[in-house]
Amino acid sequence: MTLEGLSSVAILGAGKIGGAFVRQILQKTGIRVYATGRRVETLRGAESLGAVATRDNDEAVRRSELVVIAVKPYHFPQLLSEVKQESWKGKIVVSLMAGVKLATLRAALHGAKVFRAMPNLNAYVGKSSTAVSENLYDDASRTVEEFLGLFGQVYWVPEEYLDVWTGLAGSGPAFIAEVLDALAMGAVAAGMPRELSYKAVLDVLEGTAILLKNGFYQHPAMLRDDVTTPAGTTIRGLMVLESGGVKATLMKVIEAAARRSREIGNEIDSRIREKINSRIGHTA
Ligand SMILES: NC(=O)C1=CN([C@@H]2O[C@H](COP(=O)(O)OP(=O)(O)OC[C@H]3O[C@@H](n4cnc5c(N)ncnc54)[C@H](OP(=O)(O)O)[C@@H]3O)[C@@H](O)[C@H]2O)C=CC1
Ligand SMILES: O=C(O)[C@@H]1CCC=N1
To answer: Which residues form the Pyrroline-5-carboxylate reductase dimerisation domain (predicted)?
Structure first.
């Protein structure tokens, strides 16, 4: 199935990332979107974007060919109890939940073609960097790749990289935002108004990203060296950066976020297995 062959998509949990997906799908395609949530504000928000908003997750799944799971990982067990098992059959399901493993998803969503993806909030403007696992089904994989392409760049990666990807690219916008805020505050401390500092720092970010992305430098360290004049201003700043252990700290930031993604995956797996076992116990 190509994207053009898709008539309806369900977004289960039209919150921050789910809402960004709803927005892009409706801006770029004629696909009908069923968006779910619990609070009136969530449903109204989705409706105002042009989605069919409902609290009924089962109905949203039944009426759609492709289903996106965009609830928090710890809400996944509850979501599962709201959708009949047979409703998942034959559906393409793309989970955006941090940490939740393919094995867990496959155990929970019998009969569905399951994908685990990790986008980021830049999906709101079609600039996500999204990793997805695994490329097992010909037709469905093509559909998923085209679908995720609506939100930005798509990379097929082995599942073993997805927790790191979550720490780096999924959480990334928050880390970059913190760094930008700190740099702008530094300029304020040195005497420049906040608004002007913020504008300047965003320009620096954009230009640096373009230089690196377009291959003008093979490595960020080469760009750094071109900026750095002997006994100039940059080297003085770099010395402070080094003595503050900023680079090591940022490396640990990504490591810690990736570790948390793995922990979440294990926690949710135990909860889902318990749920499945108790269901089997019930029917035996
Ligand atoms: N935020 C981000 O940048 C990214 C998040 N993710 C992943 O996406 C998922 C969502 O995160 P985020 O968008 O930040 O979280 P939000 O809390 O903004 O969105 C989650 C949504 O799920 C809804 N929800 C919860 N339970 C149910 C249910 N039983 N039925 C229907 N809707 C339900 C909530 O509805 P209500 O508001 O009405 O309570 C809420 O709107 C997480 O698993 C996260 O790991 C992945 C990549 C980036
Ligand atoms: O903080 C989180 O857990 C989610 C996953 C990636 C971005 N936000």
So the answer is: 159-263
In tens, the pLDDT along 198-222 reads: 999 999 999 999 999 999 999 999 9
Given this structure, which CATH class describes domain 3-158?
alpha beta
High-pLDDT (> 90) share of the chain, %? 93
Query: Is the confidence at residue 122, as pLDDT, over 90?
Result: yes
- Expressed in angstroms and rounded, the spacing between residue 188 Cα and the centre of ligand 1 is 35
Distance 164 CA to ligand 2 centre (A): 12
pTM of the model: 0.96
* Residue 157 φ/ψ, nearest 5 degrees: -135, 155
For atom 44 of ligand 1, the residue with the nearest CA is: 97
Tell me the CA–centroid distance for residue 124 and ligand 2, in Å. 15
Q: Is 128 in the pocket of ligand 2 (CB under 6 A)?
A: no
- Three-state SS string over 51-94 comes to CEEECCHHHHHHCCCEEEECCCHHHHHHHHHHCCHHHHCCCEEE
36 lines ligand 2 (CB under 6 A): no
Would you list the domain boundaries of the chain?
A: 3-158
Q: Above 70 in pLDDT, residue 284?
A: no
Binding residues, by number, are 57, 70-73
Is the complex ipTM more than 0.85? yes
